[in-house]
Write a structure and sequence with these properties.
Chain A: GO terms for molecular function: histidine phosphotransfer kinase activity; protein histidine kinase binding. Chain A: It is found in: Cytoplasm, Cytosol; Nucleus. The complex is a heterodimer. By secondary structure, chain A is mostly helical. Chain A has a single domain, classed as Up-down Bundle (Four Helix Bundle (Hemerythrin (Met), subunit A)). In chain B, the strands form four sheets. Chain B has a seven-stranded mixed β-sheet with strand order 12-13-11-10-8-14-15. Chain B has a six-stranded antiparallel β-sheet with strand order 2-1-6-5-4-3, with helices on both faces. Chain B has a five-stranded parallel β-sheet with strand order 17-16-18-19-20, with helices on both faces. The chains are: A mainly alpha, B alpha+beta.
């Protein structure tokens, strides 16, 4: 195999493994990878893209919700629930965890902690987004160079 | 000089004599002022102050007596006399000194004189001889010479200087003589002046020294002082004799006249609280002879409620006898009030502090406990999901061919797994109740149905020879409002407990109305008339509305039609019997009227009794405690988590009732709980009129409405099942009891609720036309059970056979399969016959429905192959989840419809028939639990009333598939919950709301696959 390709493959694998190692992603993402096949080649990218679009909307909503005079904690809770559900579905573990912490404070009606959590949630989202973008970019390069995405089984 | 000297002794005297008289704190100022200033000044000071006469109540005579007879008085006088004497002595001493000085001066002068004379003589002698003749006296005079010389040094020197001029001349001597004469004159003058002064001083002294005058002046000053001090002081000063009669009183605010007080005792003067106490206190002081202080609270008519600080000092006579007391009282009411208030406040503060500490502690503990509970709940939930996987896999494994040893191992594995699951469920339940998360629901339900279902379920898993029975008293309303799920849970728990500890005899439930939350027990068996009455009512309704019944029958699934027919047969017979017994319809009406007038809350008592091992008395107190079992021995023998009763108790208490137990060892136990239920009056009213059509539609409801007695007789199992070895398999099979109720046949439909997981496959088999093939299958299954474990497929058939087709399923099983078939055929014949007797419309409907059911169920009997394209509905609001699940479904080869909330789900079910619904629990608009309830309600009743009540309008009839498709309306679609967290949407709640299973989120491929395998066969 072309050493360049192999190197690219290794970089992809490293990048992917780091995502799991750092707890940014969990097994659920692996499930998604397994769901992606010839019939459905862009499944992950599509799902993840939908997730981020959705999340960004939710984050925006959460910001405006928490900025209000009388914070509607129920609405906040509902949005966090949404985000928690979707993040756990794509396996964005740290986002899910941030959601859980956030939701607990939301139920305790602790605004300051909620705002902190929101900030954290946003950071987690940005982190997972940038990481996944890197991963997808590597993937694109790899595919463009004629390589295939290695089937990495849980080897980390 | 004398005046000056006089000052000192007076001061001295004051210090010695007066201290006991003056209040200590004012002594310095007032004392000095009083003492230093002349008496006149003293009076000036008081001139402005008018002393009101009436304040002063003095018994002068007595005072005089007192001063004469008491120690104090005597010492006072003695002091005064001593003082006077001292002063006199002092004056004498001073005078003596003065005299001494004067006489010394005179001697001096005389000496001088002599000196002068001698000088003269010396001078004369000098002429004659120079010897000084006076040698003896010289020395003596020398002593005296020194003092005056020093005194009049200047004079002497002057004299010398003057004389120096011409010594020893006549002039000199003359001058000298003159000079001396002058000196002598001056000396005499001085002497005279001194004498005058002395005289003056003596005169002065005489003028001042009258003791009486002085004493009275002192007394006057003291009196003035006392008035000055006391005029506004809130003190009462008094003296009482040894009979405690007032002899002297000083009271700045007198409410009584002097004559009202003097000569009387306290008791004579006023009455009320505290008077006696003060009297006794004074007497005590009088007797002990020691001064004492006490605070006494008075409450008299004279001055109201007041507290006085009283100082009582005994007064002694000169002989040492107590002759009375001095009494001083001060009104300290305000101070006492303040003090008490302070004390109270302090106490309150202490209490509050203690409370606060306690509260903080409790809060901390509660928080910790809550956290721990939350943790436990989360943990439990986390454990449950994988465990459920383990158990279900083991169950599947149990269906495969295994040898005996493997089967036994598997059995242990399953029972352990079940136990752990039960434990976790119990823990979750408990923590839900304790953390207050548990919410009670108010739903309309029928107590009879609940009792029957619980017993049925228990009978289904019964592995003992026991009779299960249920009595529902007639006065129990047909429909009540309460949390049916929890009540069922309690009943199930108690019943399974009773069964566990009962080896022979019976286990049963009694349901009856109690007037108040008391535990009066009514007769165990309901009177026959009740049963008759209820059936007559039923029959009446049927008779009157036969057309609607027949209409209803066409709506039903074939099985139910048949059940209904069977039911009719029974019913008519009973009806006739009732008539013969002259039980008129009027009685039913009367009964209904009684029901109408009943109040909206009814207390229903429920006894769960058994003839089991009973509970030793010493174990009763801990019976409802968590993790408590009667003994370690019991725990080993009977297993269990020790949480069941604790949960029951908590649930009952949560619902506002109470759970009690009475038991006798080796005889049995009775658990009794009383719960309040709301009765919906609309339901009661409509029983015999408007709702008849609807009721007739609910075929199962009709008999449940009034049926008050259920019994599940024990059935002796042959070796057929015991040889099988897998108790679990038996459990999965249908009830191994004979079911002998008045309305035998129609019960069958109810079995479907008891075994929801099997229904899907079961119902489609359930047409009479299938009976033959089913019977064939039953034959096969019976054979299979003898040898090896039955496959899932066979189980289904057995279930069908027992639950659906054959109303006496167990008997069928115990008998040979050929008789089974014949029975089935017999049954079928009966059905046909009855069908014929029905109006033509109904018959047609029946045939039609039969045909349709046949068409849908074709091929099922042959094998467990999945249907070509199962229709799946995903109810999920989260787009990402939808996407992922959809993709997984695609991988599994299925397509599915997706809706976003409960309302849409209900609409979707109204339009289409689904084979499986995946339902998110937490959704906007309407959550999964409510949607499931509505769907289940439709399945049970065949109408969408619940949906309409929830605000979902019925879809137009041409769109609606389910509202016009009677065959499908009765199908119970498996609904799988998708839950996200442990407490808010627990699996229990899912089950309780009619869901069949749950998958925890995120939904993984494996979970989904497993679920589809289980429910889409």
């Amino acid at each position: 195999m072309d050493p360049r390709l192999r190197q690219m493959q290794r970089r992809w694998t490293d990048c992917r493994n780091s995502l799991f190692r750092e707890g940014i992603l969990d097994d659920m993402f692996m499930e998604l990878q397994e769901l992606q096949d010839e019939r459905n080649p862009d499944f992950i990218v599509e799902t993840v893209a939908l997730f981020f679009t959705n999340s960004e909307n939710l984050i925006r909503d959460l910001y405006s919700e928490l900025a209000q005079q009388n914070v509607g904690f129920r609405r906040v809770d509902a949005r966090i629930h949404q985000l928690k559900g979707s993040s756990s579905s794509i396996g964005a573990k740290r986002v899910t965890n941030a959601c859980i912490a956030f939701r607990d404070f939301c139920r305790a009606r602790n605004l300051t902690e909620c705002l902190r959590c929101l900030q954290q949630l946003k950071e987690e989202l940005l982190l997972v987004k940038s990481k996944l973008e890197t991963l997808f970019e590597l993937e694109n390069q790899l595919v463009a160079a004629g390589g295939s995405i290695p089937r990495v089984q849980r080897s980390f | 000089m004398v005046c000056e000297m006089e000052k000192d002794p007076i001061e001295d005297m004051d210090i010695e004599v007066l201290p006991s008289m003056w209040p200590e704190d004012i002594r310095d100022d007032a004392g000095k002022q009083f003492n230093i200033e002349k008496p006149g000044g003293d009076e000036d000071m008081l001139k402005d102050v008018t002393i009101p006469g009436e304040h002063k109540i003095l018994d002068f005579k007595r005072l005089l007596e007192l001063t004469n007879y008491t120690d104090q008085g005597a010492s006072q006088l003695a002091y005064l006399v001593k003082h006077w004497e001292y002063r006199q002595a002092n004056a004498v001493r001073l005078l003596k000194e003065e005299l001494d000085i004067l006489s010394r001066q005179r001697q001096e002068v005389e000496l001088k004189k002599l000196e002068i004379l001698e000088e003269h003589r010396f001078e004369e002698e000098r002429y004659g001889g120079d010897k000084r003749p006076i040698s003896i006296l010289d020395d003596a005079y020398d002593i005296w010479q020194d003092v005056p010389r020093r005194k009049s040094d200047v004079v002497i020197q002057n004299k010398r200087v003057e004389i120096d001029a011409e010594y020893d001349t006549v002039i000199y001597w003359k001058q000298r003589a003159m000079h001396l004469e002058k000196l002598l004159e001056a000396s005499i003058h001085r002497e005279q002046a001194l004498m005058e002064k002395l005289q003056e001083s003596i005169n002065n002294m005489e003028k001042q020294s009258s003791p009486v005058e002085e004493l009275s002046q002192i007394l006057k000053r003291a009196d003035n002082f006392l008035h000055f001090i006391l005029q506004n002081a809130p003190v009462v000063i008094g003296h009482q004799d040894k009979d405690l009669k007032y002899r002297f009183i000083y009271n700045p605010y007198p409410t009584l006249h002097e004559e009202d007080v003097i000569g009387k005792t306290d008791i004579d003067i006023f009455t009320g609280a505290g008077v006696k106490e003060s009297q006794e206190f004074k007497r005590e002081v009088l007797e002990k002879g020691l001064p004492a202080k006490r605070e006494i609270t008075f409450d008299t008519e004279l001055f109201g409620a007041k507290t006085f600080l009283i100082h009582v000092a005994p007064v002694f006579s000169k002989d040492g006898e107590t002759i009375g007391i001095n009494y001083m009282g001060m009104d300290v009411t305000d101070q006492v009030r303040i003090r008490e208030k302070m004390a109270r406040l302090r106490e309150e503060m202490a209490v509050r502090n203690a409370k606060e500490t306690e509260m903080n502690k409790t809060m901390y503990i509660t928080e910790e406990t809550m956290r721990a509970k939350q943790m436990l709940a989360t943990m439990s939930h986390e454990i449950r999901s994988p465990l459920a996987g383990v158990v279900s896999m083991a169950e599947i494994l149990a269906q495969t061919r295994l040898d005996r040893e493997q089967r036994q191992l598997l059995e242990v594995m399953l029972s352990s797994g079940d136990l752990v699951l039960q434990l976790i469920n119990d823990i979750l339940d408990l923590s839900k109740v304790e953390s207050g998360v548990m919410k009670l629901e108010a739903t309309k339900f029928r107590p009879r149905e609940v009792v029957k279902h619980v017993l049925q379920t228990a009978a289904a898993s019964l592995r003992k020879i026991l009779t299960l029975e249920g009595h529902v008293a007639d006065d129990v309303p047909i429909e009540v409002i309460g949390d049916v799920l929890r009540i069922r849970q309690i009943l199930t728990n108690l019943i399974s407990n009773a069964i566990k500890f009962t080896h022979e005899g019976k286990v049963g439930i009694n349901l009856y109305v109690v007037p108040e939350p008391s535990l009066e027990k009514i007769e165990e068996s309901p009177e026959k008339s009740k049963v008759d009455q209820s059936t007559s009512l039923e029959s009446k309704m049927k008779g009157e509305k036969s057309s609607s019944v027949s209409q209803a029958s066409s709506d039903q699934q074939p099985v139910q039609v048949k059940s209904q027919n069977g039911h009719f047969c029974q019913n008519h017979a009973l009806h006739d019997k009732t008539r013969n017994m002259c039980e008129s319809e009027a009685s039913a009406d009367r009964d209904n009227e009684e029901e109408d007038t009943r109040e909206t809350t009814v207390w229903i008592c429920c006894d769960v009794y058994d003839t089991g091992i009973g509970i030793p008395e010493n174990a009763l107190p801990t019976l409802f405690k968590k993790y408590m079992q009667v003994s370690a021995d019991h725990a080993r023998k009977y297993g269990g988590t020790g949480l069941g009763l604790a949960i029951c108790k908590q649930l009952v208490e949560l619902m506002g009732g109470r759970l009690t137990v009475s038991s006798r060892e080796h005889i049995g136990s009775t658990f009794t709980f009383v719960l309040p239920y709301k009765v919906s009056p609309i339901c009661d009213n409509s029983d015999d009129s408007d709702d008849l059509a609807i009721m007739a539609n609910h075929d199962s409801a009709v008999d449940d409405i009034t049926d008050g007695f259920f019994q599940f007789q024990p059935h002796t199992r042959g070796s057929l099942f015991s040889s099988n070895g897998s108790s679990r398999t038996q459990k999965l099979l249908s009830p191994n009891v004979v079911y002998t109720s008045i309305n035998k046949l129609n019960r069958v439909a109810e079995d479907s609720y008891a075994f929801p997981t099997n229904n899907l496959r079961v119902k489609e088999l359930a047409s009479p036309e299938d009976a033959c093939s089913t019977a064939d299958a039953a034959e096969t299954s019976a054979e299979t059970e003898c040898s090896v474990s039955p496959s899932l497929h066979y189980e289904c058939e057995v279930d069908v056979e027992n639950g659906k087709v054959n109303p006496q399923g167990t008997e069928c099983r115990s008998q040979s399969s050929s008789s089974n078939i014949s029975r089935l055929e017999e049954e079928k014949g009966q059905v046909d016959k009855l069908t014929i007797s029905e109006p033509p419309g109904s018959c047609q409907g029946l045939e039609k429905s039969c045909a349709s059911s046949e068409s849908t169920s074709s091929g099922i009997v042959e094998g467990p192959k999945p249907q070509p394209k199962p229709k799946i509905l995903l109810v999920e609001d989260n787009k990402i989840n939808v996407m992922v699940t959809q993709s997984m479904m695609k991988q599994l080869g299925h397509n599915m419809d997706v809706v976003n909330d409960g309302v849409e789900a209900v609409r979707a079910v109204q339009r289409h028939t689904y084979d499986l619904i995946l339902m998110d629990v937490c959704m906007p608009v309407m959550d999964g639990l409510q949607a499931t309830r509505i769907i289940r309600s439709f399945e049970e009743t065949g109408n969408w009333d619940a949906a309409v009540r929830a605000g979902i309008e019925q879809v137009s009839s041409d769109l609606s598939c389910n509202s016009h498709s009677p065959t499908e309306s009765k199908e119970r679609v498996p609904i799988i919950a998708m839950t996200a967290n442990a407490l808010a949407e627990s699996a229990d709640e899912c089950f309780a709301n009619g869901m069949d299973s749950f998958v925890s989120k995120p939904v993984t491929f494996q979970k989904l696959k497993q679920c589809l395998e289980q429910y889409l066969m």
